[in-house]
TrEMBL record:
One of its GO terms (molecular function) is ATP-dependent protein folding chaperone. Pfam families: HSP70. This is Heat shock 70 kDa protein 12B. Residues 1-28 are annotated as: Disordered. The lineage of its organism: Eukaryota, Metazoa, Spiralia, Lophotrochozoa, Mollusca. The keyword Nucleotide-binding applies. Keywords: ATP-binding, Nucleotide-binding. It comes from Magallana gigas. PANTHER family: ALPHA KINASE/ELONGATION FACTOR 2 KINASE, HEAT SHOCK 70 KDA PROTEIN 12A. The keyword Cell division does not apply. Belongs to the heat shock protein 70 family.
Length: 765
C-alpha cells in the first residue's frame, strides 16, 4: 500500500514552533506569503516589452527591449552617470543600497541614497541598507517575518526593503521608456518582467523575491526569474561580443551547435557556475547542475576593510564611520576600484588612498602619525609604506586579501572541468562585476592553460542583457539539470534493513514511516515542462484530506526523510468521496525544467487540483478559510497563556478524535471539542479583560469575529487535524503535550472515561 504517514506522525510536527513569543508560529502568516504561481506566464504574442532587473548584492541595474516595434530593436540599458555625478564609475550598474525614512517610507536608491545618507546631519533619523541581498542566501528560516538591520542596527522587514528596491527600478524603468517616446501604449499584460537570481538559491529565496516583486506591483503571471549564470550564457551564445583573451582583444562569435562552454558568474556576493551545450536548434542544454558558493567580490572588499580596521583599531574605525560618513563612502569606493583594477608601481606595490579624515582622527586620538605606526607595528609592518595619504602594500599582502575567494573559485572550477560530463569543453567565460579583477583573470588563465579563458568587454552587463533575451524567449533553454533530489514522504510495508525507529503498526501490520519517495534525483536532466508523477493513497478508508509534504536533499540516493532533508512545501488535497476507501489515488506531479519548481496534487475521483505552498525550513501553521484566533489575539496584551491552553487542547482533542476507534468515541471527542469552545467563548479570559483601545465600532467588529470562530458547525474534524501545527518529533510532542495537559484546570470541561483511555493509549504509543 502506498500512502503518507498517519496523521499524528505526518501532519503534526515541531512543538518548538508553538512558541508564543512575538514573531513565532502563533502569529498570523498571510495566505499569500508562500503562494505558488498557478498560472503560466503571459503568452509571448501579447508581450510588447521585456523589462529585466539585475538585482545584485553590490550593484543593480535594469534594461528593456521593445518587441515588434520598428526602430526599437536594441536593448536599452540604464546609465547611472547622472545619478553618480559623472567621473569614473566602478560598475555599469548602481550600488544596491536604499535609504528609507524613519517610518520605513522610501527616500532614494543607489548613488542618490549613498550621497543623501552621507550628507544628512543626523543619520539616526534615517534607515540605510546596503549589501543585504546575501540574507536570502544564508537564512534557512526565510519567511515573511524575516528582518534585516539598517546601518544603525535597527531591524525592519526584509521584504519591505526588497520591495522598495524593486519598485524604484520598476517605476524608473517606465520613466525611461516614456523618454524614448515610443508610440505604443503598454498595458500590464503587455510587459514581461524578468528578475535575476543566483542559480544556487533555493526555492524559498526565489519565492521571497517573487513576493517582493508582487508587492512592488509586478503580478506573478507577468514575472520570470532568470538564473544569473544562465542569463549570461544566453547573452554570450547569442551575441557577437568583444572579448579579452590573454590580454588581447578579439571577437567571440555566436556559438555553433554542439559547442560546450562554461560560464563563471563572479558577482558581489556569490559565484555561480554553469556549463551549457548549444543544441542543433540553437537552444541551450544545461550539462551540470548550477553550483557555486559565497565567494564573491564583496568578501575581498571586506578583507581589505578589515585590514585597515585592524591597522587603526576597531573603536577608532567605528568613530570614523559615525563622524565622517562621506569619507567612509569614499574609502569603500577606493577599495572597490583597487580590487577591480589592481596595478602595482615600479616595485610591484599596491597603493590605496586613505581618507584624510581617517588619518587626522588617528593622529588626534593616538597622538602619533599613522605613517609611523603602520610601518612599526603589526605583522605587516615590513611590507607597508605610507606617504601622505597613500598606503602602499606589497603584492603578497594584497594577495592575502584575495586568497580565500580565489582558492575557492579555482578549486570549484577544477572539479567541474574534471567531470566527464564536461568533456569537450574549451571556453571558460568570466562575467559579472568581479570578473573585472585582474588578479582573478590572471589566476584563471594560469590555472586553466588548456582552456580559452575569455572576458566579454561588458562583463558586468552580461547577466542583465542576457535576462532581457531570456524574457524575450524563455524556451531558449530547453533542458535543465535538477539541482536537488526531490520527493515526498510516504508510508510502506516495513522491510528488512529499514531503521527500527521508523517501524510502526497499522491494524497489526508493520509499516515503515518516513520513506523518501524520489520524484527526481540530483543531477538528472529534464526538458522544460517535463512532468514526473507519483501516486499516493490514504492510510485510512474514511480520510477526506491528503496532506502531501515535498522535500529536497543533496543526496541523489536519499532513502528516508531525515536530517539530510529539507521540507520545501506542502499541499492539502481534498478527497471528499470516501467510497473508494484505501484504493483512492492522489497524483502528485512535479514540473521540471523551469527556473522554479512547480508541484501539484490532484484527486483522481474529484478532479480537484492544488498547487504546493512553498515553505522555508520552518513550518508555520495556518487556519484555512477561517478567522484565525491567533491572528485576532496576537496583537492584544498578554494573550500567551490563553493561546497556549487553546492550542494544546485543540491538538490533543484532534489526536483523540483521530485515534479513537469507535463512532461513540468519535462523537465524545467531538462533543468535548464543542464544549471546550463554548466554555472558552463564555469564560472570563484575558481577551475580554483587555481595556478597549480602539474605536467602539472596531471593538464590536473584533468581538463579532471572535463569536464566529467555531469548529462545531463549519469546520470538519479533518480540516482541524489537517491544519494542526506540525511536530517534528512525535515523542517530544507527546511528552510535552501530557505535561501541559496536567497543568490545565478547566473546571467546566469534563473529559469522559472513554476519551481519557484513548488519550492514554496515544501517550503510551
Amino acid at each position: 500500500m502506498s500512502g503518507l504517514e498517519e496523521i499524528p506522525d505526518d501532519v503534526i510536527s515541531g512543538l518548538e514552533e508553538m512558541s508564543t513569543e512575538p514573531g513565532s508560529g502563533l502569529e498570523e502568516l498571510p495566505d499569500d506569503v508562500f503562494e505558488e504561481r498557478q498560472r503560466p506566464v503571459r503568452e509571448s504574442s501579447k508581450i510588447k516589452m521585456v523589462a529585466a532587473m539585475d538585482f545584485g548584492t553590490t550593484y543593480s541595474g535594469y534594461a528593456f527591449k521593445l518587441i515588434g516595434i520598428e526602430n526599437h530593436k536594441n536593448i536599452y540599458v540604464k546609465s547611472w552617470n547622472e545619478e553618480a555625478g559623472g567621473g569614473c564609475l566602478p560598475s555599469e550598474n548602481a550600488p544596491t543600497c536604499v535609504l528609507l525614512e524613519a517610518n520605513g517610507d522610501f527616500k532614494s536608491f543607489g548613488y542618490t541614497a549613498e550621497r543623501e545618507f552621507s550628507e544628512c546631519e543626523d543619520q539616526k533619523n534615517w534607515r540605510f541598507f546596503k549589501h543585504f541581498k546575501m540574507i536570502l542566501h544564508r537564512d534557512e528560516g526565510l519567511c515573511s517575518k524575516t528582518t534585516i538591520k539598517d546601518s544603525n542596527g535597527k531591524e525592519i522587514s526584509a521584504r519591505l526593503v526588497f520591495t522598495h528596491c524593486i519598485k524604484f527600478m520598476k517605476d524608473d524603468l517606465m520613466k525611461m521608456v516614456e523618454r524614448k517616446k515610443v508610440d505604443t501604449e503598454f498595458k500590464t499584460e503587455n510587459i514581461r518582467w524578468v528578475i535575476t537570481v543566483p542559480a544556487i538559491w533555493e526555492e524559498p529565496a526565489k519565492q521571497f523575491m517573487r513576493e517582493a516583486a508582487r508587492e512592488a506591483g509586478i503580478e506573478g503571471d507577468n514575472l520570470l526569474l532568470a538564473l544569473e549564470p544562465e542569463a549570461a550564457s544566453i547573452y554570450v551564445k547569442e551575441m557577437n561580443v568583444e572579448v579579452h583573451t590573454d590580454m588581447n582583444q578579439s571577437r567571440l562569435s555566436a556559438f555553433s551547435p554542439k559547442t560546450k562552454y562554461m560560464i563563471v558568474d563572479l558577482g558581489g556576493g556569490t559565484v555561480d557556475v554553469t556549463v551549457r551545450e548549444v543544441l542543433p536548434d540553437r537552444s541551450l542544454k544545461e550539462i551540470t547542475k548550477a553550483s557555486g558558493g559565497a565567494w564573491g567580490g564583496l568578501h575581498v572588499n571586506q578583507r581589505f576593510y578589515q585590514f585597515i580596521e585592524d591597522l587603526v583599531g576597531n573603536k577608532l574605525m567605528e568613530k570614523f564611520r559615525e563622524q565622517h560618513p562621506a569619507a567612509q563612502l569614499d574609502l569603500e569606493r577606493e577599495i572597490e576600484q583597487k580590487k577591480r583594477n589592481l596595478t602595482g608601481d615600479e616595485q610591484n606595490r599596491i597603493l590605496i588612498n586613505l581618507p584624510g579624515e581617517l588619518i587626522e582622527l588617528f593622529e588626534k586620538t593616538k597622538g602619533k602619525s599613522l605613517s609611523d605606526f603602520a610601518t612599526s607595528s603589526g605583522r605587516y609592518r615590513e611590507k607597508l609604506e605610507m606617504k601622505f595619504e597613500k598606503l602602499r602594500m606589497s603584492l603578497d599582502v594584497t594577495m592575502d586579501m584575495f586568497k580565500p575567494a580565489v582558492d575557492s573559485i579555482l578549486r570549484h572550477v577544477e572539479e567541474l572541468v574534471s567531470d566527464p560530463l564536461t568533456k569537450g569543453l574549451k571556453n571558460i567565460i568570466l562575467v559579472g562585476g568581479f570578473s573585472d579583477c585582474k588578479i582573478i583573470q590572471k589566476a584563471m588563465r594560469e590555472k586553466f592553460k588548456d582552456f580559452r579563458v575569455v572576458i566579454p568587454q561588458e562583463a558586468g552587463l552580461a547577466v542583465l542583457q542576457g535576462a532581457v533575451l531570456f524574457g524575450e524567449n524563455p524556451l531558449i533553454v530547453s533542458e535543465r539539470v535538477s539541482p536537488f533530489t526531490y520527493g515526498t514522504r510516504q508510508l510502506r510495508y516495513f522491510l528488512d534493513g529499514d531503521p527500527p525507529e521508523y517501524r510502526t503498526e497499522i491494524d497489526g501490520a508493520p509499516f515503515c514511516k518516513n520513506v523518501f519517495n524520489v520524484l527526481a534525483r540530483s543531477g538528472q536532466t529534464f526538458r522544460v515542462g517535463q512532468r514526473v508523477t507519483t501516486e499516493v493513497s490514504p492510510v485510512k478508508p474514511n480520510q477526506t484530506v491528503m496532506p502531501v509534504n515535498v522535500y529536497q536533499s543533496n543526496n541523489p540516493d536519499q532513502m528516508y526523510v531525515d536530517d539530510d532533508c529539507r521540507e520545501i512545501g506542502t499541499m492539502i488535497v481534498d478527497m471528499p468521496d470516501t467510497t473508494g476507501g484505501l484504493d483512492r489515488i492522489v497524483d502528485v506531479s512535479l514540473a521540471f525544467g523551469d527556473t522554479e519548481l512547480h508541484v501539484t496534487g490532484r484527486d483522481r475521483s474529484s478532479k480537484e487540483k492544488v498547487s504546493m505552498q512553498r515553505r522555508g525550513r520552518k513550518y508555520k501553521s495556518r487556519w484555512t478559510k477561517k478567522v484565525g484566533l491567533k491572528q485576532l489575539l496576537a496583537t492584544q496584551e498578554n494573550p500567551r497563556s490563553l493561546i497556549q491552553e487553546l492550542e494544546m487542547r485543540v491538538r490533543m482533542l484532534a489526536l483523540q478524535r483521530e485515534t479513537a476507534e469507535s463512532d461513540t468515541l468519535h462523537a465524545i471527542a467531538g462533543e468535548q471539542q464543542r464544549k471546550f469552545f463554548t466554555v472558552w467563548m463564555s469564560r472570563s479570559n484575558p481577551f475580554n479583560e483587555i481595556e478597549d483601545t480602539g474605536t467602539e465600532s472596531d471593538n464590536l467588529i473584533t468581538r463579532q469575529k471572535l463569536t464566529q470562530f467555531s469548529y462545531d458547525k463549519d469546520v470538519s474534524w479533518d480540516e482541524l487535524i489537517t491544519n494542526a501545527p506540525r511536530i517534528k518529533k512525535y515523542t517530544q510532542f507527546m511528552e510535552e503535550s501530557a505535561s501541559a495537559l496536567r497543568q490545565l484546570e478547566y473546571s467546566a470541561l469534563q473529559t469522559t472515561e472513554e476519551a481519557d483511555t484513548a488519550n492514554g493509549e496515544v501517550l503510551n504509543s
